[in-house]
Design brief:
The chain is of the alpha/beta class. It has a domain of about 180 residues: Decaprenyl diphosphate synthase-like (Undecaprenyl pyrophosphate synthetase). It is built from 10 helices and 6 strands; from the N terminus they run H-E-H-H-H-E-H-E-H-E-H-H-H-E-E-H. It has a 6-stranded parallel β-sheet, sandwiched between helices. Helix 5 runs parallel beside helix 6. The longest helix is centred in the middle third of the chain and has 21 residues. The chain is globular and about 70 Å long.
Length: about 260
């Protein structure tokens, strides 16, 4: 892009973004936003960089996103950084990716602006990575800022299976019979054992990179969510893209799954 076009954007976009924000009623904005940070590898290929460079560029965009969420009063953000399927990637890619994720989470924890909560099958991760995620959660436990779920080694089907397993083990410890357990199982009892137990379900789920599928993200929790699909690869996702997602959300008539 020509330098004059970049300069024009720098001048015009702040005004455009401010006008969009003013026109969105605060009471209609989502309180819980889920974000599928997709497209790091494709971004790297598009700009002639290594895969690790794409993941690093994506990690660098996390803090700005959380700042934008703070700006509009978001209470909970769930970031999908690594799926259970991604754990099957070749070690030459997975190892550096896990280090980049752990470094990014460490950086967020040091700032103590947000309360971090790792969600996912942490037992599937290398012990050192799982420990760093848990340490970040502990270090921010008393922070009063926005709650940020860091989904690493996360899969929606795995989460539901883990919830049911936890429910069964809890019942077994109480000596509950199979018949009593079966009679008492409902959606609320399963929800109480999800990774996000006690949290509101996401109002809005954003996926970058142009892909229009859920891919296993928050399968249970997103039953009544609104979805927004953005063409930009995650490293290129800008504040204006975020505000456009919010604007689209506020213009919809929510039917809550009906």
């Amino acid at each position: 892009m020509a330098d004059w076009k970049r300069g024009l954007r720098r001048v015009l976009y702040p005004a455009y973004e401010a006008r969009m924000l003013r026109r969105m009623p605060a009471e209609n904005l989502p309180k819980h936003i889920g974000v599928m940070l997709d497209g790091n590898r494709r971004w790297a290929r598009a700009v002639g960089r290594d895969t690790a460079d794409g993941h690093e560029a994506g990690a660098a965009n996390i803090e700005p996103l959380l700042g934008w969420c703070d700006e509009v009063g978001t209470e909970v953000v769930t970031l999908w950084l690594l799926s259970t399927d991604n754990l099957n990637r070749p070690e030459r890619e997975l190892g550096p990716l896990l280090d980049i994720i752990a470094d990014a989470v460490d950086s967020l924890a040091v700032q103590r602006r947000w309360r971090l909560h790792p969600v996912g099958a942490l037992d599937l991760l290398p012990a050192s990575v799982a420990q760093r995620l848990k340490a970040a959660e502990e270090a921010t436990r008393d922070v009063e800022g926005m709650l940020v779920n860091v989904a690493v080694g996360y899969g929606g089907r795995r989460e539901i299976a883990d919830a049911v397993r936890s429910l069964l083990l809890e019942a077994a410890e109480r000596g509950t019979s199979v018949e009593e357990l079966a009679a008492g199982i409902d959606t609320e009892s399963i929800a109480e054992h999800l990774y996000t137990k006690g949290q509101p379900d996401p109002d809005l789920v954003i996926r970058t990179s142009g892909e229009q599928r859920l891919g296993g993200f928050l399968l249970w929790q997103s039953a009544k969510s609104e979805f927004y699909f953005c063409e930009a690869y995650w490293p290129d996702f800008r504040r204006v893209d975020f505000l456009r997602a919010l604007r689209a959300y506020t213009l919809r008539e929510r039917r809550f799954g009906s």
